[in-house]
Amino acid sequence: MFSKILIANRGEIALRVIRACKEMGIKTVAIYSEADINSPHVTLADEAVCIGEAPSIKSYLNIPPIISAAEITDVEAIHPGYGFLAEDAHFAEICESCNIKFIGPTPENMRLMGDKLAAKNAVKRVGLPVVPGTDKVVKTKEEALKVAKKLKYPVMVKASAGGGGRGMRVCHNDVRLISALLTAQREAEAAFGTPDVYIEKFIDKPRHIEIQLIADEAGNTIHLGERDCTVQRRHQKLIEESPSPAVNEKLRKKMGELAVKAAKSVHYVGAGTIEFLLDKNGDFYFMEMNTRIQVEHPVTELVTGLDLIKEQINIASGKKLSIKQEKVSINGCAIESRIYAEDPDKNFMPSPGKILEYFTPGGRGVRLDTHVHTGYEVSPYYDSMIGKLITFGKSRNEAISTMQRALDEYKIGPIKTTIPFLRNIFHDPMFIKGDIATDFVERITEVQES
After folding, report:
1. What mean pLDDT is predicted for residues 363-379?
2. Which terminus of the chain is more exposed, N or C, with fewer CB under 10 A?
3. Where do the H-state alpha helices sit in 140-248?
4. 132-201: which CATH architecture?
């Protein structure tokens, strides 16, 4: 087992990894930018190294000072968390070349699954259902029009290296398709360094279901059930829950087994997530694979009793999985709300600033993963998520009622947050019934505005 690990991240995920390491008897090294000098992860780690100025390109995305910090503190491994360099194959290769273990999948895994089109073709070969569409890059408007004619509108243009909704456009006619193709190519080039896009049939009103996987270096691969990430805004997840109200045991088994099959086919190692679209008829389609720990991993931890961060660390150290598939059981229901420092009344404009009022919810069935506190300065330089509120109950209704109570208790000011917006969702009759699709937030927003 490692004696010391550097966490190449910040915020709540850095704290999450530090806490897991402390419980495992592993010393930790935090890295921080000049803007994060007073952040809790800096204080709670055994050592801390400043790696640069506030902008992430000069700190958390700047590989040389991160590697230097790892070398001067003599760590054996680096945990990347999520975001920043977590899915950067080049960073993983540099770690490897410096004899530092990267706690995550192999660079080959990241490269293959980071290319959505290549990933789609890879899983298709082993029998996973995929959304009808192109199996190669679409470069010209003539190609795009030909594909759309075959698939029939609506179709979706998607960046091959995309994520987070960037480089994605829905099209209902030829004029929109040509415009979307050019826009998506420019956006993909700016965001991911490649203009490559492809086209798929647009699945109307699906649910977003993902399967949590974990695999060790000995080839043992299991799934830990599903998470329902259907409640989104502009392709960004807002609420996640496990299990999904739309997935029964038979469907869970089928999706899980296919996800495991896909991971095994590419010799996947570590924690990862296969994401599916589930349509109104109960048919599901592979969408992408995330080669990292997910933001929403706590809901899986609460219903399975497993610590996914500790599993990651154990796997990276060469240990086998702590549990076999037949021993995995899903108990109760867990729901996560992402809390953002944004103003819902001003089109979710970021709301940085100092937190002067802060009261956290607690009690039975409440978990809060956050890095903020009274006096904390929410920086404009980084993602505006400031916490994850997770509730657990014996049933979905119990988890929802606990979330309603916890959101009412949670007080943050004077900065604006998405807490009031989330309160509305958790009191919405359609959400409570579980009758939702990926356009749910847009629909309720339109109703509120009218």
Report:
1. 97
2. C
3. 141-151, 174-192
4. 2-Layer Sandwich (3.30)
Whether the CB-CB separation of 55 and 71 falls below 8 Å is answered with no
CATH of 207-449, picked from 3.30.457.10, 3.40.50.300, 3.30.470.20, 3.40.605.10, is: 3.30.470.20
Phi/psi for 360 (5° steps) reads -100, 145
Sheet holding 155-163, edge to edge: 166-171, 155-163, 197-201
DSSP designation for 87: T
Strand 357-359 versus strand 411-413 pairing type: antiparallel
Tell which residue, 90, 62, 81, 78, has the closest CA to residue 29: 78
Question: For the CA atoms of 211, 217, 220, 225, what is the dihedral angle to 10 degrees?
Answer: -20
Q: How confident is the model at residue 239 (pLDDT cuts 50, 70, 90)?
A: very high
Domain layout of the chain by residue ranges:
4-103, 132-201, 207-449
pTM of the predicted model, to two decimals? Answer: 0.93
Taking only the tens place, the pLDDT of each residue in 293-332 is 999 999 999 999 999 999 999 999 999 999 999 999 999 9
Q: Domain 4-103 belongs to what topology?
A: Rossmann fold (3.40.50)
Active site residues: 292
